[in-house]
Amino acid sequence: MSPLSSTVRTVDWDELPPRVRQVPEGFNPLDEGVLMLHQREFVSIKASIKACPKGRRTGITFAVALDKTLVAAARKSAGGDNVFYIGDTKEKGLEFIGYCAKFARVIVQAQGEGVSSIEEFLFEDQDEKGNTRNINAFRIRFASGFQICALSSRPANIRGLQGHVVIDEAAFHPDVQGVLDAATALLIWGGQITVISSQNGKNNPFYQFCRDIEAGLYGSDAVVMTVTFDDAVANGLYERVCMMNGWVASAEKKAEWYLRIRKGYGARTAAMREELDAIPRDGNGVCLPSVWIEAAMPHERPVLRLTLNDDFARLPRDERDSYVKDWIVTNLDPVLVTLDKGLRWGVGRDYARHRDFSEVVPLGVTQTLRRVCPFALEMHKVPGRQQELIVWHILSALGNFTAAFDATGSGETEAENAADDFGASRVHQVKLSRAWYGAWMPKLLKLFEDGMIDIPRDDNLARDLRIIEEIDGIPMVPPLRTKDLKDADLLRHGDFAVALALAHFATLNYTFAFGWTAAPSHPRGYDNTRSTDAASMRDTDDDMTLPEQSAW
């Protein structure tokens, strides 16, 4: 087939990645036994959405390339369709299209039809604002009229693609959540989404995507199949390696090969389990292991939530105030009356207005210096004045408190107002920065390590805490947003973690309330006598009113 006018150039075989060039020249993808058992099982899944958390080098991408070559080569009446591959690097895209080109040669020969060479072209992409850009891409065109297109980066307009979409190494894309959200729109016209990836930590949206499928949130037409390195070894991976490298396979050498791969990770057991066994680590540079977080959640406690829509802000202020005051009486007051007002309280306040959650986290300090969070409050799209109503109500109810407000951005005004109303010595206005995180976040982590903190048992809060990771040696909340587990339309940005760190900061910078009593003016000092009010039978301390002695 002749190149199209949009073709920039034709890719030579020598330009393909080494793994593609290693495929033997006489390799026939249609032969019996070409795919291992786990490869056959995965490509045989016909669900609209299928995900594969996998160990490294298990051959899943190879198998999907063969399956999608058959799809693109088939006519529409036989289930043929376009295929779009979205990898995390340009090299991955070239590898996938190289496999497909190898397979296509044999497949179209069997069909007696033609196929194009690998063509490099510019894929025109357009975002929601109408801005266009060109993405470097590779394609193979079939006589069926369909093509396989490998994009070198994520298009903004994934929703505009039509056909089968393969997202490879999804956990390593810069915007994992955006890729997954956009791809689901393809199903409207009967496409299929295949998501393949090694794991990249529990706080990664790919891990949560797989959990959501397993929990049934995507319905019965979505399937997860996990493939580990051990699965591949049991199904003949070592023998395939020997065939490709010209080695002589033996049971003894297989055991040595297997052990060498496992031992190659040294003391990095978590990395080995993630890369070979598809068991995600708690995070990349994780600061709070899951076992610490779960140990700090011994009881179910209230996680109050007030979520409003954009129309609420357009209501008259008195209507908004009335609604929020009713919400306070119904939802917040029953929790506040249960609190021990005798404790010292630190309150963390992480302000947000639109995209993220706005958090209030009270942290009581017990007699044993244990930090206890009796509840957490989350607000979303609540106007600023109504947020103040709620926050001020909590602070007034606690009484014996010191608070720390995030005054970094839009929360600065609220922080200043709180300092005016409750006293600048009781309300710390914190500018979050690397220096602040470096000084105070380790102190919060130490509470979890020592088992000296109790927080509400809640999966969203746990995920917020798992997001904390070391960035250039400093534990902090990275610029990563994840889907809220209670409402998939909402996003989280480690909001509870920030508020909890602020609350702990407040407990460590506590301001004590104090009063004073004037000394008596009587030269004898306190006379230690009392006069009795017979009517009420109460003692009246009259030291302050005693007349001073005089001299003539």
From TrEMBL:
The organism of origin for this protein: plant metagenome
InterPro entries tied to this protein: P-loop_NTPase, Phage_Mu_Gp28
Protein name, entry field: Phage terminase, large subunit
Q: Looking at the record, which segments are called Disordered?
A: 525-552
